[in-house]
Amino acid sequence: MNRLPPGGPKTWSRTNHRGETVTLLEGPAVAAGAIVGVLVQAGLTGTSAGRRPMAMAMAVGGAGAAAFGAYDDLAGSGDRRGFRGHLGALRHGEVTTGAVKLGGIGVTGLATAVLAGGSPADVVINAGLVAGGANLLNLFDLRPGRAIKVAAASGALLGAVGQESVAAPLGAALALLPEDLGERAMLGDAGANALGAMLGASAAGLSRPARIVLLAGIAGLTAASEKVSFTKVIARTPALNWLDMLGRRPAPEPSPVPPVPAQLTAVTIPAQRPEPTG
């Protein structure tokens, strides 16, 4: 017996940049797989207790970001976008689903950072990494596979400096990359927010100076997104555009301009001259 998702398939369907219908269920699937994976990786069913605080922190970060992202996916209208749009609405007394999500992910980031431990300064920095990572990765989820590619590159860098906890969330995301590239499914806010939050949480093991630099980079890119289109920057940068199109379906061809009928091109309109006055 097949189980339908809550609300039915139409609730989880969206129209992509081609005008085709895709499902948002990739997001919850990635979040669930990443959370289970990080808990198993930490050995919560065994005797490896040293990794438990980080695993629990990442699980909370992923679950909270996924929940608030799903809320925005399903209840949001998309009329307001970015910090400016949501905060502007708040100034006029309108509470958007995006504003609820931003506040919820902020609280999630703080809870994640507290579970990860450290001094008050570390908690503040780590909370910023979780919330900022969740928001930033979501900004890249505008074309097939883009957010997962950005996550893979970020995770590879974190893994190269010894942050092994990134393996589980990246494994879950890469497992569904073919569906994303094939334009059959997309991460949506639930998946992108969860994946970004868990990557941000995994950076808690870095030195404090490295985390401050990383947080500054996240804040800078987020601020730039309010003024600059990442899609346009990627499209006009050959190397980035090649990576962005790697594995994707070809870009849609522009609609041909219909030819002008020959009889219309042959018609001339005589110049209008003023009538003689005398």
Keywords:
mainly alpha, 278 residues, two-stranded antiparallel sheet, 13 helices, globular
Describe it.
The model has no long low-confidence stretch (mean pLDDT 84). The chain has a two-stranded antiparallel sheet with strand order 1-2. It is mostly helical and 278 residues long. The chain has helices spanning 26-41, 52-75, 82-91, 97-116, 120-139, 146-160, 167-175, 177-181, 188-202, 208-225, 230-235, 238-245, 262-265; strands at 13-15, 21-23. α1 (26-41) runs parallel beside α9 (188-202), α5 runs antiparallel to α9 and α6 (146-160) packs antiparallel against α7 (167-175). The protein contains 13 helices and 2 strands, in the order ββααααααααααααα. A hairpin with a 5-residue loop joins β1 and β2 (21-23). The longest helix is centred in the first third of the chain and has 24 residues, at 52-75. The chain has one domain (20-245).
Q: Tell me the overall shape.
A: globular
What is the succession of H and E elements? EEHHHHHHHHHHHHH
Mean pLDDT across the residues is 84
In whole angstroms, how far apart are the ends?
94 Å
Number of helices: 13
Strand order of the largest sheet: 1-2
Q: Tell me how many strands there are.
A: 2
- List the uncertain runs: none
Largest sheet: 2 strands, antiparallel
Beta content comes to: under 5%
User: What is the SS-derived class?
Assistant: mainly alpha
Helix content: 55-70%
